[in-house]
Amino acid sequence: MRKYLLDLIVSSNERLNNNYILMKLTSQETLPEMRPGQFVEIKVEGAPSTYLRRPISIHFVDKKANELWLLIQIVGDGTKKLAELKSGDTLNVMLPLGNGFGLPEGGQKELLLVGGGVGIAPLLQLGAELKAAGYSPKFLLGARSAKDLLQLDEFGKYGELFMTTEDGSMGEKGFVTNHSVLKNVKFDKIFTCGPTPMMKAVAAYASAENIDCEVSLENTMACGLGACLCCVTDTKEGHKCVCTDGPVFNIKDLKWQN
Amino acid sequence: MAELITNIGGLRMKNPVMTASGTYGYGEEFADFIDISKIGGIIVKGTTIAHREGNPYPRMAETPSGMLNAVGLQNKGVDYFIDNIYPRIKDIDTNMIVNVSGSTIDDYVATAEKINALDKIPAIELNISCPNVKQGGMAFGTDCKSAQSVVEAVRKVYGKTLIVKLSPNVTNIAEIALAVEAGGADSVSLINTLMGMAINAEKRKPVLSTVTGGLSGACVKPIALRMVWQVAKAVKVPVIGLGGISSATDAIEFLLAGATAVEIGTANFIDPTITIKVAEGINEYLDRHGFKSVSEIVGALEC
Q: Which of A114, A216, B41, B89 could be a cystine partner for B18, CB 3.0 to 4.6 Å?
């Protein structure tokens, strides 16, 4: 897929809670095609400790409104600066990057999308595309507490929602891998994105149950283009770039690191 | 429009702007953003005699105005390059230059000899300065005798333009440059990355898997500029300056300090179109100051 370097306009930048923003970007031109699971690299201006671009997952593409949605967790100076942007500001964005999720194949019907923390971001677009393709995906979203479960109305548009919280304030108490939906439904494919321990637990479950499983990795990266070789993950075929060979990998190709 | 044509030890370039090895892949990675044939020279990823997996993740740490890397020369080896990559890149209409690295003199010689046979590779950059491999690399670049020996050995088998990339991790870089020149180098490029380190205080652990790594980016520019100035005064061969160049003004500063050409490295990660902007900016500067050719500002620093 062709990559672009675009100056996009912030159409809205909403603070969802203390730690998250939902930023919507638009352009006078039609936004390029983007696949679920791909990401963008954003140039942050005016944050002294932020030198490199910030890789951010594509949360949703609203084709009608010509808007790209980004769900951003405020972690450091770069994302703090992004949280300060207002409607009308411009942002230099390189997109679309990475491979994206693979669509189900060979009669895979029962699809589970498992997200934790900011890792829920790419699952919205994936869910929307799966629904449009005639599937009925299920979402299993985990968080510390109810206030950290974000965008539930949006996810609800595309599939059934299952939730876990560590404090039991919403959904089932515990971790995603303990949720009863895993016992009640025989899934054909699992897509997951979230903290590494969560993804490893999901991958271990999928392997044990012989379920096809794709994970979206978040290694720290510089170029986003496969040039610097900084973001590699160890695979059965050696080191591969998360930015170009990923971020989505099938667990059967990975050698998980500790 | 001033004249930007630049000559590095017999290598003719459209302009003095090159890309630094390890920051530009094989050029193709950037072709969606710019016409890469407009760059004076593209120095591709460091190539070794055998396949190297490189160092374990994490290999990168962002630092104030820069970054540390510890990639460790991951590449599929020179034979893979010749069979699979060279056919794809050989017809790009610019100087495609291979960065050659090794652990022993024999490795350097064998790799250089194989690259010498490729018609469309007009030059190599000998990397005697990689801080991220345990054996070789920087060991050759931090000692005058070893530096001269490896260059002499490669010179015997390599007939085209031989650029030698120097390490800044030395006390007197001009001495190393003189040794390399005596060994038969057509040009020296400097600086490679500076050895540095990052620590995660919360975890009480180093950020990089290798503990130390190579520092690059805007933060190293003053050091690079000083070293280019010192080396350009010492040697007769043309100097290629690099280290933190992020704008046309940065590049012009290196030319004024005595560099005949420049390489752009880490800045490619932030702006994939930076090379073209720098070439255009140099041209604009020359016009504005009434210079007819870029060669007029090489070493034109008044001090």
A: B41
Q: What pTM was computed for the model?
A: 0.95
In this prediction, residue A257 carries a pLDDT of: 47
**pLDDT at position A33:** 97
Pick out chain A residues at pLDDT < 50. Answer: 257-258
Residue A51 and residue B218: Cβ atoms within 8 Å? yes
Residues of B in contact with A239 (CB under 8 A): 53-54, 57, 74
Q: Do A223 and B23 touch (CB under 8 A)?
A: yes
Contacts of A257 in chain B (CB under 8 A): 56-57
For B240-275, write each residue's pLDDT tens digit: 999 999 999 999 999 999 999 999 999 999 999 999
Q: Which residues of chain B have pLDDT under 50?
A: none
Residues 68-97 of A with CB under 8 A from B: 94
A4 touches chain B (CB under 8 A): yes
Q: What is the pLDDT of residue B136?
A: 61
Tell me whether residues B67 and A53 touch, CB distance under 8 A.
no
Write down the architecture of domain B6-297 according to CATH: Alpha-Beta Barrel (3.20)
Show the domains of chain A with their CATH numbers: 4-97 (2.40.30.10), 111-216 (3.40.50.80)
Contacts of A231 in chain B (CB under 8 A): 57, 59-60
Q: Which helix (H) or strand (E) holds B13?
A: strand B11-13
The pLDDT value recorded for residue B139 is: 79
pLDDT in tens, A111-155: 999 999 999 999 999 999 999 999 999 999 999 999 999 999 999
Q: Is there a contact between B33 and A5 if contact means CB atoms under 8 Å apart?
A: yes
Tell me which residues of B are annotated as active site.
130
Q: Which residues of B touch A234 (CB under 8 A)?
A: 56-57
